[in-house]
Amino acid sequence: MRNYTIKATTPDERLGEALTRVTKLKGDLIARMLECGAVQIRFRAKGPWERVRDPRIKLDKTDVIKACLDERVLSIPAFTDVQVIAENKNYGVYVKPAGVMAQGTDAGDHCTLLYAVNKLGKQSFPVHRLDRETEGLMLVAFNSQAAAKLSQLFQLQKVHKTYLAIVAGETSYLGVGTQGSINEPLDRKSAETQYNVLQELEDSRLLVELKPLTGRLHQIRRHLELIDCGVWGDPKYGKRNKNREGMKLAATELRFVDPWSLDEIVYRYKASFSPKA
What we know:
Elements lengths: L1 E5 L8 H9 L3 H9 L3 E4 L7 E2 L12 E6 L1 H4 L8 E5 L3 E6 L16 H7 L5 E2 L8 E7 L2 H12 L4 E10 L9 E5 L8 E9 L5 E7 L6 H8 L2 E3 L17 E9 L6 E5 L9
Parallel strand pairs: 8-14
Antiparallel strand pairs: 1-4, 2-3, 2-4, 5-6, 6-8, 7-8, 9-12, 9-13, 9-14, 10-11, 11-12, 14-15
């Protein structure tokens, strides 16, 4: 990975010209970086970083440009085939497949859910995240005001989330119908996850419904590891739970009071690994 910081040296220098001058890269590679969102600008050296894709943009001498070259990321195909659950003027609910990032990094954003939403002709503002390995429902705001309102719901824990997981490990003490709560601090902060065992699967694995009551980093995955029932296929947490099929964790329900209509809204998604009825 190579990172570049760039400033215009002449009045009205074009972005593509500045990138060529500093990076010494070939034109087709610079075009790919722009296409994939690997170039960002802070206009007048103020405000947020903005991804830019047009090499014809005229630069001001006060603009600051950063570019990131990661050919592994550039080789990933763009993600555009997003499943729409619902949309209104303020936000949309979409399905993020496992393996797709929620939002981009400095190396690009073309293989993310937010990019796919942009390709639908929407502005996209993230209000929460799902781990790359997790599939399921994501809420995306369409403007900054909506993002603020929806983010506040998550901060106040007024968005009730339900997940489905296949777990493996020491499951002998858990039978169908077993319910409980894991109350173990994470990162020195209180954390609670409720669980309900729904079904026994082959090889002593279990299908479990999970409800995180707090929002700590990797909360469900870390809590399940603590009771030796890691998510099946989790590449980071758990023992005796690895596979080659990917991680079996899905965000299957979002429930909250819509800040505009004041109606309680419930969105649901059937996990790709749900056993057939």
